[in-house]
Amino acid sequence: MLIDEAYIIISAGKGGNGFVAFFPGKKSGPCGGDGGNGGNVYIKVNRNMTSLAQYAGKHKIEADDGGNGGSFNKTGENGEDLVLEFPLGTEFVETGTKKLIQLPSDDRLILVCQGGRGGFGNDHFKSSVNRTPKRAEKGHPGETRTFKVIMKLIADVGFIGLPNAGKSSLLNELTAASARVAPYPFTTLEPNLGSLDRIIIADIPGLIEGASSGKGLGIRFLKHIEKVKLLLHCVAADEDTKQMIKNYKTVRKELTAYSTTLATKKEIILLTKSDLVLPSERTAKLKSFKKLNSLVYCVSIYDLEALGKVTQIIKES
Ligand SMILES: Nc1nc2c(ncn2[C@@H]2O[C@H](COP(=O)(O)OP(=O)(O)OP(=O)(O)O)[C@@H](O)[C@H]2O)c(=O)[nH]1
Ligand SMILES: [Mg+2]
Questions:
Q1: What domains appear along the chain, each with residue ranges and CATH number?
Q2: Ligand 1-lining residues (CB < 6 angstroms)
Q3: pTM assigned to the model
Q4: For the Obg domain, which residue ranges apply (predicted)?
Q5: Among the bound ligands, the one closest to the CA of 162
Q6: Does residue 154 have a known ligand-binding role?
Q7: Which of 37, 18, 58 is nearest to 114 (CA)?
Q8: Residue having the nearest C-alpha atom to atom 12 of ligand 1
C-alpha cells in the first residue's frame, strides 16, 4: 500500500540538569556545572524516498536529552541532534495550530523542535552577596509538536498496461522499489513509486476494458500519473500479435476516456516478457507495433541490455 500520509509526534531532547558542588577545602566556592542542551530535531529532503512507510502508524520520535552538569564546572554533554528525512514535496501541518511547513527542495535543514536548554549549575548563581549558592536549575524541556505529514510526490514517468503485463516487475528492476509481483492479474491494488536517479516512476494498477466505467479497479489511479512527462505502455509479448495489438488499443481507449491530456502524452511501448518469445517473433512483433507508434522496444527483466536501454530512455525523458 502506498503510504502517503502519517502522523508524527516529534520531541526535542530535554536539557540536562545543573549541578550543585563546591570546591574542596578552604577555597570552597561553587563549582557545579551546567547541564548540556537537549538535541534539536530537523527535517530535510531525501530525493530517493518515495513513501512515508517508515513513519506509518502514529510515531513518536525523540532526540537525545542533554547530560547533567558535574562538579568542577563540568558541563553536561549536548544531546545529539536528529535529522528526519522525507520525500520531495512533503508538507507538514501542525495539529492544533494548523501551521503549514513546506519541506525545502534543496539540502537545507529546517528546525522543527528546539532542544531544551541545559539548567545552570550553582556556579552560575554566585554573586557578591551570595558566594555559596546551593541552588542549581533543572534542565528545560524540549519542544514537542505533532504533525500530519502529507506526501505530495509527483511522478515523472508512469507505467500503464493491462493487468499482469509486468509493470511492477519492471519497476522493481529499474528502481529500489519492492512492489508485489505475482502471475495473475490485479496484483497491484495501489500505486507503487520508485526513484531512478531522482526521477520518480509510478506503477499503477492494471487497466482493463471498461475500466473508465468502473470495471476492474477502475481508473481513479490515473490521477497519480496525470503530471508525468512520459508513459511507458507495457504490452506482454507472450501472446499472438493480433491479441497484443488489441490489448494495446484497449488500454489506449481507457486512457482517452479518462483524459485527453493523458492520452496525448509522449508514450513509449514496451513489449514485455520478451524472453518468452523467439528472436524472429520479436522482430515481427516490433514491426507490427511500429505502425502504431515508432517508439517501441522489446524488454525482459532477464535482459540487462534492454533494461539499460529503458533506463536511458527514462533518464532522457
Ligand atoms: N518470463 C518473464 N516473466 C515476467 C517478466 N516480467 C514479469 N514477469 C512475470 O509476469 C507476472 C506478472 O508480473 P507483474 O509485474 O506482477 O505484472 P503487473 O503488470 O504489475 O500486474 P498487475 O499488478 O496485476 O497489473 C509475474 O509472474 C512476473 O514474474 C519478464 O520479463 N519475463
Ligand atoms: Mg503490478
A1: 1-153 (2.70.210.12), 157-316 (3.40.50.300)
A2: 161, 163-169, 181-183, 185-188, 205-206, 272-273, 275-276, 300-302
A3: 0.76
A4: 1-154
A5: 1
A6: no
A7: 37
A8: 164
